[in-house]
Amino acid sequence: MKKALLYETKEGQKVVCNLCAHRCVIHPGLIGICGVRENRGGTLHTLVYDRVVSANIDPIEKKPLFHFLPGTGSFSIATVGCNFHCRFCQNWEISQMPKDRKGLVLGRKITPGAIVREALATGCASIAYTYTEPTVFFELAYDTAKLASSRGLKNIFVTNGYMTAEALEMIRPYLHAANVDLKGFDDRRYRRICGAKLEPVLETIRLMREMGIWIEVTTLVIPAHNDSDEELRQIASFLRSVGEEIPWHLSAFFPAYRMMDVAPTEPDSLERARRIGKDAGLRYVYCGNIPGNLHENTECYRCGETLIERWGFGVKWNAIKDGHCPFCEAAVDGVWRDLWQWEASKQAG
Questions:
Q1: Is the same domain home to 38 and 167?
Q2: Are 141 and 128 in contact (CB under 8 A)?
Q3: What pLDDT does residue 338 have?
Q4: Which residues touch 140 (CB under 8 Å, ≥6 apart)?
Q5: Per DSSP, which regions of the chain are E strands?
Q6: What does DSSP assign to residue 87?
Q7: What is the CATH number of the domain that holds 246?
Q8: What is the value of pTM for the model shown?
Q9: I need a surface site. Which of 3, 18, 274, 315 has the fewest CB within 10 A?
Q10: Contact 125, 153 (CB under 8 A)
Q11: Is the pLDDT of residue 340 over 70?
Q12: Considering its fold, how many domains does the chain have in total?
């Protein structure tokens, strides 16, 4: 157990957690919506600071991040818990564990230092805080990210985007990239299906871009829920208003958790969504979670030439040189490994 960050004490030993947009008011002896932050006598504690439930070496493309150090490995960790309760959650066994299993918190004891050492030993270029919601294990993520940055590793959040501005400002110096899951554009459905509001997610996307954090956005396209032309246009238009360079990943839904009665996403629906994104003026729109999909490659937004060819989560080849298209010399939006290595050597010198 470790004292939590970003909370304030109120009368009667109540606390207000300012980590995520729920801003839970937690009475003594109780826990927040996330299931992993507990008020003990007026002091808020995190129950998962040293309890990593999953640790894997993933290709960065699995996050998915296609414009951030493509072709590199990312040491990926998670604890149990989440501040959403999405009915279609793909990792519900660990994200919803404390809620579904009467407060159960499992995980291997590990320190931030050990996480960084494992990431370095496996040759990864980054650490991804992923699988569940990294905001709810913020203390572990913050301490690990700070140490990782000092050792030359990059840090990535794969997130639902429901953190507060205070949390984002705190980790900003050590957070280099994020993939934000934008689950739709209907606030009522967000509340009903996910247990959260839409606007804080949109504000996080805006704020991350303002802060200079590289951001990509994923939308799980769910039949009869968020796949109408109107809603897809709303998402695309919003992203275009924030930045035309933001990659938009359209992912196919498969029945999971408490949404087993919904059919999988048809490939044609992803194709239609991609056309909507491109028509809205987004430079990079990808379709994923369908094997053999042709829209996983990165193309130059100016000349249309293929710059990165992918198969699944693997990069077959990458033609980007010094951040530019070799065919028309357009600057390609993203964080590229050759430039990162040059910057790192420059700093070391």
A1: no
A2: no
A3: 65
A4: 46, 48, 49, 50, 52, 79, 112
A5: 2-3, 7-9, 15-17, 25-26, 37-40, 43-46, 51-52, 54-59, 73-78, 108-109, 126-129, 154-159, 177-181, 214-221, 248-252, 285-288, 298-299, 306-311, 314-318
A6: T
A7: 3.20.20.70
A8: 0.95
A9: 3
A10: yes
A11: no
A12: 2
